[in-house]
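Appendix B. Extra example for self-study. Work through it before the problem class; the solution is given directly after the inputs so you can check yourself.
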Amino acid sequence: MFKIFKIVISNILQRLSIVRSDINRNDKQGALARAWGHVYNNSIVGDYVEFGVYKGESVISSLKIRRDFNLWLKSQYQSDEKWRRDFARNSPLNDPQIFHCLDTFEGMPFNDEGSISFMQGNFFTELSKVKAKIEKQNSEKINVKYYKGLFSETRIEFLKSIKNRNIAIVNIDCDLEESTRDALCSINQNISIGTILLFDDYNCFNADNSKGQRKAFSDFQDKSEFIFEKFFSYHFAGQSFLVVGLR
Ligand SMILES: C[S@@+](CC[C@H](N)C(=O)[O-])C[C@H]1O[C@@H](n2cnc3c(N)ncnc32)[C@H](O)[C@@H]1O
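Solution. Structure tokens for the complete assembly:
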């Protein structure tokens, strides 16, 4: 009896949960909601990769937003329109994505990029604490992988782990030009048309084209086989891009 009651309540809640996060927010959370919206709207199969995790706040936001979208997908199983039921039941997004979390977990690396905010050792944290915090919020038991060290040092471990899996969302939140360069070098083989890239610090360094994430991404685009298009901007300095084609 209790089991039936639970199923009925959960069905009602799922049917009601049609609000899939707040895409009208212009902060990091809003950006992640739009990114996941893009993924669910287009059924893009692929993992979530974050370069620059710090205390795990944006990873946790991402886990929660993904969970909400997934709840919405499940609610479509009960739609009175057949095509929606078929679409939801056959969606490749029923298979959970893997979350890849990369950071030194010891703060910003040595650099000579001249920003007081991004000096070596800032954003210090400890991997064990970050893991515990993320796992506490990981209600759906998503496979979250951690790579501790400089992106350039963990690249091989990351590539071995992601293999040929596609990346749906890459959140590049590592502030520096060199770090962004290293991050982009690691994802080059695993992005495809539809991948969304979030650059949280795109307009840092006074939005100077010759510095920071702008410079790193501009150089990357010059050599890339992909065509990128500006999508939305967010928060104080963030800019997203979509992979929209092949050269
Ligand atoms: C601004 S914090 C990230 C904030 C986090 N995404 C959030 O929203 O809570 C930047 C992080 O990038 C990491 N980072 C920067 N360059 C790195 C590099 N080359 N390798 C590894 N981690 C790096 C720093 O350790 C720091 O934790």
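Self-check: The mean pLDDT is 94. If your reasoning did not lead you there, revisit section 3.
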